[in-house]
Specification:
The complex is a heterodimer.
Chain A (H helix, E strand, L loop, with lengths): L5 H45 L24 H4 L3
Chain B lengths: L5 H21 L14 H28 L2 H33 L8 H14 L1 H7 L3 H28 L17 H43 L29
Helix pairs in contact in B: 1-7, 2-3, 2-6, 2-7, 3-4, 3-6, 3-7, 4-6, 5-6
Classes of the chains: A mainly alpha, B mainly alpha.
């Protein structure tokens, strides 16, 4: 079969590269959606740690029974990025 | 941590991909027979090689999982196969586009290379439903590992069988880059490296994301209690289960 002219082959080549690019883009978009869900859940947990779990324990300077430090949450993970 | 080195790996992947694209369109010569259409070769073939390599890698990780019973190997096996399936979709679509332009048909059923790749792809397509159908995490991981090893052995056997067959029109590239002109061979090898780096980066992203979610889940359970209705379990999943460890940050994935 003779080689297709550039204007004809160009469409197929572009389609092939666009397919690969789109697949990677969709994957990254899914990962971004998951990341935003993790961020939202982390926000919920952060608000949970700020609420006193028992009114009797709500002393000045101690907001919750379990602070992030007690839960071994390391500074690099807990700090905003 | 699983995310260590991710930034450097991502950067290396982006740079290699950009250099490869520049080489493909501005450095590699136009092939005499296929013309400009041959440019599909630089994305289709490396993706096929990396996808098949990923399937074999998934089998090797599964062997490690069965040997050590460490769920981290199960996670690696799962992610390698999962990513290879995504790459497999790209291979099938780009191959079909190339076939249509080159042979005039979207698919040729009497071509062993195409059909064998489709068989392997369909074989691995049942991996996730298999995992999903088993509720017990231990059994799920064990059965998935056995499947990954068996299917992983099938990949090179299939490859050899296709090579031994005589009637084919699909060009042979692997192990025969010496027939390519030096400029084409260099571009092809760099494209292979770029696609392999993309595969490694996406696998690392996936594993890091799963690890982060596992840590978050452990933290949530500790804060809200195991039996809280608000933070109830999300039900069955095809992804490997996480084994919570007493110390957060060392969750086994």
């Amino acid at each position: 079969m003779p080689a297709l002219p550039l204007h004809e082959a160009g469409k197929y080549v572009a389609a092939a590269y666009v397919v690969v690019f789109t697949l990677v883009l969709v994957y990254v978009a899914i990962m971004a959606a998951r990341l935003s869900r993790v961020e939202r859940e982390l926000g919920e947990l952060l608000s949970l740690t700020e609420q006193p779990s028992d009114p009797g324990d709500a002393q000045p300077g101690r907001q919750s029974q379990q602070t992030p430090d007690e839960l071994d949450v390391g500074r690099p993970e807990s700090s905003p990025v | 941590m699983y995310g260590r080195g991710l930034r450097a790996l991502s950067f290396a992947t982006v740079v290699t991909l950009c250099v490869t694209l520049a080489l493909i369109f501005f450095y590699a010569p136009i092939e005499a027979d296929q013309g400009f259409l041959q440019k599909i070769f630089y994305v289709h073939v490396p993706m096929a090689i990396v996808a098949l390599g990923g399937f074999i890698l998934g089998g090797l990780f599964a062997i490690q999982h069965l040997r050590t019973r460490d769920s981290r190997w199960d996670m690696r096996s799962y992610v390698a196969i999962h990513m290879s399936l995504i790459f497999g979709v790209a291979v099938l679509i780009t191959g079909s586009i190339w076939a249509k332009a080159s042979w005039g048909h979207w698919w040729v059923w009497d071509e062993p290379t195409l059909v064998s790749f489709l068989i392997i792809f369909l074989l691995y397509a049942i991996y996730q439903p298999l995992r999903f159908s088993i509720e017990d995490p231990e059994r799920q991981a064990r059965y998935a590992s056995v499947f990954a090893i068996t299917a992983g052995v099938f990949v090179p056997l299939n490859f050899i069988a296709v090579r031994l067959s005589t009637g084919y029109v699909h060009p042979r590239v692997l192990g025969d880059t010496s027939s390519l002109p030096p400029k084409m061979a260099l571009t092809f090898l760099l494209a292979l490296l770029a696609i392999a780096l993309l595969f490694a980066t996406l696998c690392k992203y996936e594993i890091t994301a799963k690890h982060t979610r596992a840590q978050l889940s452990t933290l949530r359970r500790r804060l809200a209690g195991e039996h809280s209705s608000v933070y109830a379990s999300r039900g069955r999943s095809a992804a490997p289960r996480i084994q919570p460890s007493p110390v957060l940050g060392r969750t086994k994935v």
